[in-house]
Write a structure and sequence with these properties.
single chain, alpha/beta, Spore Coat Polysaccharide Biosynthesis Protein SpsA, Chain A, nine-stranded mixed β-sheet, five-stranded mixed β-sheet, about 40% helix, about 20% strand, globular
């Protein structure tokens, strides 16, 4: 059994594999560490190129695109290791990036998962949207990071270089204990893509695990590799999966009220898209809510069968006990540092 398995889930990402995979193999050459390509039914010769040019990379071929969630579930079920590293194909790793993550999990058995500091590949002085220096959530399900709130990213001046407990670790690059992954049952495949890692991290909190950002490890992320940030499909997935996330994980006493407020906020987002001249994105919000209501029965069942205690919510110290929308747009609190005082 390997100690660490680095697993890249790929779907037609040949361009990124040519650019970044060799660095992953070179900068991850630690004892008992393996690099895997889990291919999600690509049609762009990704598998053939990796097999020919990087034979040390182990390959798992899935028969179709199972999405980010389903693909990783199937791939990790075939890999025997103590730690899994889930890393996007559009990530550029740096020398020494892996050791701090391994060391932190080695020394802290109560921690399920960690992530590095994630900076922008194209604006290397700034944090990247998908994870920055650790992820958080507000009471209504809006996500943000140390270094990123909504689409505003901060310049990295070392202000978030401390190791910090977080609510979620980024699916773009995270290391998770295989035992914790199996205990929480991995990703919910119904999410397909987007927020599946936040849902999993919430379950881990409900089970009593902790999660941390370890910024001594640094990677650079291109972002938008599978779906561009302005994609209507991404709008649909973000709004639908956020409703899934809240329904599955909130404690019973807060579920109805918070979901009602969130639906009102989504209505305002719908109006905002219309006023911006983006009717296609507004329609995606409607589709997201229809899909949510069509899945209420299965979501209710998941609340019952997935592991973890929803009532542990009050013990989680990494949830912003405010509306992020109000704090950002009305009170003009634009950085994580200005929000610290409002956490549970």
């Amino acid at each position: 059994m390997d100690k660490t398995a680095i697993v890249i889930l790929n779907w037609n990402g040949l361009e990124y594999l040519k650019k970044f995979l060799r660095l992953v193999t070179e900068y991850s050459s630690l004892p008992h560490t393996s690099v895997w390509l889990a291919d999600n039914g690509s049609t762009d010769e990704s598998v053939e190129w990796v097999a020919a040019n990087l034979p040390q990379v182990k390959i798992i071929c899935l028969n179709e695109n199972h999405g980010f969630a389903g693909g990783y579930n199937l791939a990790l079920g075939q890999i025997d290791a103590e730690y899994y590293v889930l890393i996007n194909s559009d990530i550029e790793v740096t020398p020494g990036w892996l050791s701090p993550l391994i060391l932190y999990l080695d020394l802290h058995p109560e921690v399920a998962a960690v992530q590095p500091k994630i900076l922008s590949l194209y604006r290397r002085t700034h944090f990247e949207y998908a994870g920055a220096s650790g992820g958080y959530i507000d009471k209504y399900g809006f996500t943000f990071c140390r270094g990123r709130i909504f689409h505003t990213t901060e310049e990295d001046k070392g202000q978030y270089n401390d190791v910090a407990e977080v609510f979620w670790t980024s699916g773009a690059c995270m290391m998770i204990r295989a035992s914790a992954w199996k205990e929480c049952r991995g990703f919910d495949p119904d999410f397909f893509a987007h927020m599946e890692e936040i849902d999993m991290c919430w379950r881990l909190h409900n089970m009593g695990w902790k999660l941390y950002a370890v910024p001594l490890s640094v990677v650079y992320h291109a972002g938008g590799g599978a779906l561009p940030y302005n994609s209507p499909m991404k709008t649909f997935l973000n709004f639908r999966n956020n409703l899934f996330l809240l329904y599955k994980n909130l404690p019973s006493g807060k579920l109805r009220k918070i979901l009602l407020i969130r639906k009102i906020m989504d209505l305002l987002a719908f109006i905002f898209f219309i006023l911006q001249g983006k009717p296609v994105h507004a329609i995606q919000i409607v589709k997201a809510h229809i899909h949510y209501y069509n899945n209420i029965r299965s979501l209710k069942k998941k609340r019952e069968i997935y592991p973890g205690n929803h009532e542990n919510y009050s013990k989680i110290k990494t949830i912003l006990n405010r509306s992020l929308v109000f704090e950002f747009y009305i009170k003009r609190n634009k950085t994580y540092a200005s929000l610290i005082k409002y956490f549970n």
